[in-house]
C-alpha cells in the first residue's frame, strides 16, 4: 500500500489507480469548461493517496486534454466522470479520446531528492511516474532483475504513478 506519510515514500505494484480512456469520444469539453471523461472500465480510487479528487490525463489523441484535473462528479469504481481541468482548454475544442486517466498520489509541489526502484523482478518490467500535468518524472524499463536509482530530481509538480509492474519505488522527499 502506498505510504506517503513517512520519508521515504513507498509505492508498489497495486498502488497506481488508472483507467484507459475510451477511444475517440472519451474526452468531451462541456460548455461550463468542465470535461466529461469516460473510461473503458471502472476506476477504483486509491484511498491511501493524499487527495481523492486529483487526476492526470496522459496520452490522449488531442494534446489539449493532457494535464491536471479536479474531480467534480463521479464515484470510485465508476467509468464516467466530470472533471475541471486546472488549465485552459479553448472553447470549441473537439472531442478526443484514448490515453489514460491516473489518480494523483500527491497533487502538490514536492521536492524529490532521490527515487529508487527496488527489486524489479526482471527485464522488461515497467515503471511510469508522471507529474500532475502529465510530464514524465521517470519512465523506465528494467534491463534485468534488481534495482535502479535516479537521483536529484528536485521540484516536481505533483506525482501521478501510472505503473509499477514489480518491486517497490522509494521516493526520498525533502
- State the name of the first-level CATH class of the largest domain: Mainly Beta
Broad shape: globular
- Let me know the average pLDDT: 93
SS element count, helices: 0
Taken as a percent bin, the fraction of beta residues is over 45%
H and E string: EEEEEEEEEEEEE
Fraction of residues in H or I helices:
under 10%
Q: Kindly, what is the distance between the CA atoms of the first and last residues, rounded to a whole number of angstroms?
A: 21 Å
Secondary structure category: mainly beta
Number of domains: 2
Strand order of the largest sheet: 2-8-5-6-7-4-3
What is the strand and helix layout of this fold?
Elements: E1 9-12, E2 18-20, E3 27-29, E4 35-43, E5 54-58, E6 67-73, E7 78-85, E8 100-103, E9 106-120, E10 126-130, E11 136-141, E12 146-164, E13 168-173
What characteristics describe this protein?
seven-stranded antiparallel β-sheet; about 170 residues; Elongation Factor Tu (Ef-tu), domain 3; 13 strands; mainly beta; six-stranded antiparallel β-sheet; 2 domains; globular; about 0% helix
Summarize the structure.
With 174 residues, the protein is mostly beta strands.
Description:
- This protein is mainly β.
- It has two domains: 9-14 and 107-173, no CATH class; 18-104, Elongation Factor Tu (Ef-tu), domain 3 (Beta Barrel).
- The chain is 0% helix and 54% strand.
- The protein has strands at residues 9-12, 18-20, 27-29, 35-43, 54-58, 67-73, 78-85, 100-103, 106-120, 126-130, 136-141, 146-164, 168-173.
- The chain has a seven-stranded antiparallel beta sheet, with no helix packed on it.
- The model has no long low-confidence stretch (mean pLDDT 93).
